[in-house]
Amino acid sequence: MEEKKRTEIATLGEFGLIKHLTENLESKNESTLKGVGDDAAVLEYKDKKTLVTTDLLLEGVHFDLTYVPLKHLGYKSAVVNFSDIYAMNGQPKQITVSLGISKRFSIEDLEEFYAGLRLACEVYGVDIVGGDTSASMTGLTISITCIGEADTDKIVYRNGARENDLICVSGDFGAAYMGLQLLEREKKVFAGESDFQPAFEGKEYLLERQLKPEARKDIIKELSDRNIVPTAMMDVSDGLSSELLHICNQSHTGCRIYEERIPIDYQTASMAEEFNINLVTVALNGGEDYELLFTVPLTLHDEVITIPGVRVIGHITNPSLGAGMITRDGTEIALKAQGWNSLND
Amino acid sequence: MEEKKRTEIATLGEFGLIKHLTENLESKNESTLKGVGDDAAVLEYKDKKTLVTTDLLLEGVHFDLTYVPLKHLGYKSAVVNFSDIYAMNGQPKQITVSLGISKRFSIEDLEEFYAGLRLACEVYGVDIVGGDTSASMTGLTISITCIGEADTDKIVYRNGARENDLICVSGDFGAAYMGLQLLEREKKVFAGESDFQPAFEGKEYLLERQLKPEARKDIIKELSDRNIVPTAMMDVSDGLSSELLHICNQSHTGCRIYEERIPIDYQTASMAEEFNINLVTVALNGGEDYELLFTVPLTLHDEVITIPGVRVIGHITNPSLGAGMITRDGTEIALKAQGWNSLND
């Protein structure tokens, strides 16, 4: 096996490191006036609103470097922030990146992380405008702030859902969670073996959803092309059930979704069977799907279903009806932020 | 001794905790359209430029909770970000706050931290628009992003210093560093004693500079009142010498400062003597002063010295002359980012 080159961070120092990692960054957006290299970045959002979101990712809590390659981690760290901006019906434009780094990491490690960050920024048209690194006592800390823009009349909040609105989702659910279970299992099986070569054939989709998720820029464009402004929208990071409850709470409504309409990939279904986990629990509560959950008026039904990858899974109700799911056998179950009543008993 | 009340964070959960910490936040700024509670904050910067800066603070690296009260830590975490915005000649308007929290911390601990944050925001007219907490395996992680505004023609970068410009500073230098040395010494002396009551009489200024620094909003106002736009500006976080080198490097100039003109408080001087540390090294390289370092054209000399607390410490030179300091005995010493040549030998 070839030894990877390892250069200690101390050889560059903090300022040298940031300079090295951020050199040759070219601005892609008009709104980026000044990026890395001063006390603050300078942006210009003329007739648009400015959106700001931030995410903190901690080693051992949010990611496990035993099986997450640093390049993928860089990509994912950026994309989960973009996803929050799309969820407001906006476009991500800039990110700032702060890293806390222990001595375990080399310059080559950070180059890989930045390669992932840069790739994500390339794909989504985002500029890296601020970088900051500092020593850390323990592991890797990643803090990313994303700034984006939206037209004033197009911003979508969580609180705009109205009775009879359709509940729509993009993509499918539960795959990222099953990907995580798979990685955790292989980690245990191969613990201690340095030539870690687990067999992942036929499960690539699950791994991709866990390790290299994408944000639904495409759905935001399809909505815009059809002049559809959802009444409420979120991205699904904590789980479909939990996010749906946020929309219902903030919009003061109830909802009904239908088990049979929740989109699930066959790889997710087959892994859930292998692991003997309830499939619908996985889809409702797995999280990290980074799909869009949104509501539109009933009158837009015929139009919204023409968007590739979008499905209607239920509707918004009067708040007195609560938030519930109709199962395949017609039973009604209350939605919970984590798991169902019936499973928690 | 009265026992402090301790409520476990688990009793509220992540969403409950954020709601609890950020309730009753009222927006102070027109540019804040939507704060905490959605996928992203929504801001509106009409005819101004938007400034963005971010800081990551890690327990054990940037702060020691043995002697830093959480309320002070909250205050300082916010202020160091405001300082970066003032350093661009802007006004801080919003912050987002991400915390990584280990089980060691209680709800009451976080309430104290937020009390400090809120106080700083009150004093400086800033809105808290985003909050995020997550579990941490080890200690406290604080990531704050500050968004501010500036008039297009008033933004000051690091790269605008020109030959013969005057080098000006606010306040005095080295006090925060001596405050830290003092706290570290008392920590060692009292290690193991639970009734930690060190004697700090006559050294209050040093402690205040370390534990509760202020950003120089007042200087930015005084400059604006006199229609002075500095040619270059930074805030002094890493040390006067290091920041001056940044300005010289980015402006492609040299500089000469005069040892006798560097403002130093008498408490700093007396502590340096007590610790047997070279006073000028402390003032040049101590860091965490959060004072402003800026350059103005020579023609503004008579005006700039009327600003309370501002002193001219030298001038910008041709790059061929390098960056140097003239000592009290007339010797010329090259400025280094950390320590001097003469001390490093």
List its traits.
homodimer; 345 residues; alpha+beta; 60s Ribosomal Protein L30, Chain: A; Phosphoribosyl-aminoimidazole Synthetase, Chain A, domain 2; 2 domains; seven-stranded mixed β-sheet; 11 helices; globular; disordered C terminus; PurM-like_C_sf (chains A, B); PurM-like_N_sf (chains A, B); thiamine-phosphate kinase activity (chains A, B); magnesium (chains A, B); ATP-binding (chains A, B)
Describe the structure.
Chains A, B: Its EC number is 2.7.4.16. Chains A, B: Pathway: Cofactor biosynthesis; thiamine diphosphate biosynthesis; thiamine diphosphate from thiamine phosphate: step 1/1. The structure is a homodimer of 345-residue chains. The longest helix of chain A is centred in the middle third of the chain and has 18 residues, at 107-124. Helices cover 33% and strands 23% of the residues of chain A. By secondary structure, chain A is α+β, with helices and mostly antiparallel strands. The first copy, chain A, has helices at residues 13-22, 70-86, 107-124, 175-189, 204-211, 217-225, 240-251, 266-275, 279-285, 301-304, 341-344; strands at residues 32-34, 41-43, 49-58, 91-101, 127-135, 141-150, 166-170, 232-235, 254-258, 292-296, 310-317, 323-326, 332-334. The first copy, chain A, folds into two domains: 9-152, 60s Ribosomal Protein L30, Chain: A (2-Layer Sandwich), CATH 3.30.1330.10; 166-344, Phosphoribosyl-aminoimidazole Synthetase, Chain A, domain 2 (Alpha-Beta Complex). In chain A, helix 2 (70-86) packs parallel to helix 3, helix 4 (175-189) packs across helix 5 and helix 4 (175-189) packs across helix 8 (266-275). Mean pLDDT of chain A is 92; it is low at 339-345. In chain A, the strands form three sheets. A seven-stranded mixed beta sheet of chain A has the order 8-10-7-11-9-12-13, sandwiched between helices. In chain A, a hairpin with a 5-residue loop joins strand 12 (323-326) and strand 13. At the A-B interface, strand 2, strand 3, strand 4, strand 5 and strand 6 of A face strand 2, strand 3, strand 4, strand 5 and strand 6 of B.
